[in-house]
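Progress against Task 2.4 (sequence-to-structure conversion) is shown through the following example record, which the project officer requested during the mid-term review.
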Amino acid sequence: LIRIFCPLRCGRSCIPPPRWRRTGSAARSAGSWWESRARGSRSGCGKTTLTRLINGLIPQFFAGELTGKVLLDGENLFDLPMYRIAEKVGSVFQNPRTQFFNVDTDSEIAFGMENEAVPQEQMGQRVVETAKALRIENLLGRNIFALSGGEKQKIAFASVYAMNPQIYLLDEPSSNLDMAAIHDLRAHLRLIKSQGKTIVVAEHRLYYLMDVADRIVYLDNGHIAGDWTPEQFRLLSTEKRQSMGLRALDLQDEKPICAAVPKQPAPPLRAVVHRSILPPGVGTDCGRAVPNSLS
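Structure tokens generated for the chain above:
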């Protein structure tokens, strides 16, 4: 569904994004990309920039110099109005609060459908179906500001799911989630993958995506530096993976850094009472404050 081309002078189809830079500063591009695709690498490497090229926020909302093109079902995405892109591409941002437009969960899930002029009866049914499919019925009818971070992320995902896009973009979706919420997120990704959807994930955490991703492509400075299946990617040494700025693939194999540092004996505790802070007529005995008449 998506093909991203090199700068026009190159003309060959490839994974790296078109050259784009903000005015006055170059945007670095290094990361991983997965088919169901996920991308993970160091912070500030350009993962978010690539997702913004796919959902049209670049160049429609972020100014800069751009060459190259992104084809969406054979059409140049940069020539499409935003409403046409939104019909096929749904985005879940790193901070779900930045994409909320309502104060209650039902209205937020329905918001995208309202913009597509979906009939009210059909829209209400779709909200119920979405909550059931994602197992978030307990979040219906809730105040968004009363939700936890993980619950807000689920509502953000549900608002995209309700619109039934063909392409899902998720920018570091696990960054504010605990282990239980990450488990639920993985279940949601498996669900939409089983429906034949295209998934693009920009991530630092990789372990929960290893059984979801079909392809892993590592980008460095706008070029493909590695292209693997998940099975091939697991064969990379820990040293190689860490040098690429990628996190653990399996939490069971990781040990806390502090475990390698030998414990030092704790210094003995001493009770110290300074006479200067004692009231007049009170002395000390083995660190205890006692009247001078008894010391």
